[in-house]
Design brief:
The structure holds 2 protein chains of 2 kinds.
Chain A: H1 3-51, H2 54-80, H3 82-92, H4 120-129
Chain B: H1 2-50, H2 56-81
The chains are: A mainly alpha, B mainly alpha.
Chain lengths: 201, 88
């Protein structure tokens, strides 16, 4: 065998070894991918299975809520009249008058009266219910009725205080001991023998 | 013989490194997929776990039904108690 033939065989063997190493490594990596995808398919199947009835249930809930809203709006319009009903809704939910009432198409054309002025206390009660109470600007021209970024106590400042019903700052507990800021002079007679009064005659 | 040697040199210095380079690229790409797939599997598992509460929607549906029924009852009572608005 000539030297050139030996070198050729060596080169072919090297190439085959490289092919074997890299292809086997690639196969192992792809097997990991397949195992991972099996897990993904299993969990995605769980997602599909669990979310299958959600659509029907949510549609049913929405239908029932729509029926409730329609009934309440109908009752409100029946009792308060269309204009006052729109004003009341707009007083609680500012801007809602533009959307109008669902079953009353004419409600979108009504200029809502300022019912909020009448129901201010109730509106503030709603405001105290939670930070997400949807009344941010119930008093046009006077700024927001409630600081939506502040606590619920912000609405309390809107009430006039006839008397101070709450302390601005609770009194602190007294500090006692040798390090107390207020030191009191000790009476000398405390702990001393009782004075003997002169005997009465 | 000279051409044979030239062929050997080309095989060793050009073909072999090229084969190694290309196969290494395929291997690195395949290995790069593995953590991504594992991340997807983890996310899918978390998503599936998040939906464990989906059956509670049936309870929500029942509660909504009862609430709407209660509202209808109150509405009926208010309809009787309160006078209707005067026609404009």
């Amino acid at each position: 065998m000539s030297a050139a033939a030996a070198v050729l065989i060596l080169a072919v063997v090297l190439i085959v070894l490289a092919l074997v190493y890299f292809l086997v490594s690639t196969i192992l990596a792809l097997r990991k991918v397949v195992a991972g995808l099996d897990v993904v398919i299993e969990h995605v199947g769980g997602i599909v299975e669990k979310s299958a009835p959600v659509n029907d249930v949510v549609i049913a809930i929405n239908e029932q809520l729509d029926a409730g809203v329609a009934a309440l709006e109908g009752l409100l319009v029946k009792k308060a009249g269309l204009a006052d009903a729109v004003g009341l809704v707009d007083g609680i939910y500012p801007g809602a008058a533009a959307a109008g009432l669902r079953d009353f198409p004419d409600s979108t054309t009504i200029d809502p009266p300022r019912i909020g002025e009448v129901y201010t206390k109730g509106t503030l009660t709603l405001a105290r219910l939670g930070r997400e109470a949807p009344i941010a600007a119930a008093s046009p021209g006077e700024g927001v009725l409630r600081n939506v970024e502040g606590g619920s106590l912000a609405a309390r400042s809107l009430y006039p205080d006839g008397r101070q019903a709450r302390p601005e700052k609770l009194p602190t507990s007294p500090v006692i001991g040798t390090d107390a800021p207020d030191q009191y002079e000790q009476r000398e007679d405390i702990g001393a023998p009782r004075k003997r009064l002169p005997a009465s005659r | 013989m000279t051409l044979w040697w030239i062929g050997n040199l080309v095989l060793l210095l050009v073909v072999f490194p090229l084969v190694v380079y290309l196969l290494n690229g395929v291997l690195q790409a395949a290995r790069a997929i593995v953590p991504t797939v594992q991340g997807i599997a983890t996310t899918a598992a978390a998503g599936s776990q998040d939906l464990d509460a989906a059956p509670l929607l049936l309870t929500t549906q029942e509660q909504v039904t009862q609430t709407v029924a209660g509202i209808a009852g109150y509405g009926g009572s208010l309809d009787v108690i309160l006078d209707d608005a005067e026609p404009a």
